Input
Amino acid sequence: MKVTAEKNEKVAEMIFGSIYPLYLNRLEKNGRTKEELNQVIEWFTGFDKDELQALIEEKVTFRTFFQKAKIHPNAHLIKGVVCGYRIEEIADEFELYRTCRRLEKLIDELAKGRKMEKILRKEKK
Output
């Protein structure tokens, strides 16, 4: 599937704090915890649990959320298909959309029971 400017903008304007409980609910149904969700988000964005909570309370959009984030240098290692989109084929002009899908891929892997050390990618030596 191809990303459009409209789709990118729609995701950019979504409130992160309205989506976070959906992530959490999905993970808890699969036996994972809020702490694990926060660990994945912290690895990906650099936000600790207090910063994350503040952003949720501020009702920031995904655009602001990712603008404030320090995306992990190994984020480029997150590949695969999420919601019908192959992450590595999302055009550079839609960086925000690609970043959002990368986060969702990490959450997906967590929900599916993947080990944390596999989710938090490291460069192969």
Q: What stands out?
A: The chain is about 60% helix and 5% strand. The longest helix spans residues 95-111. The helical segments are 5-13, 16-29, 34-45, 49-58, 62-68, 95-111, 116-119.
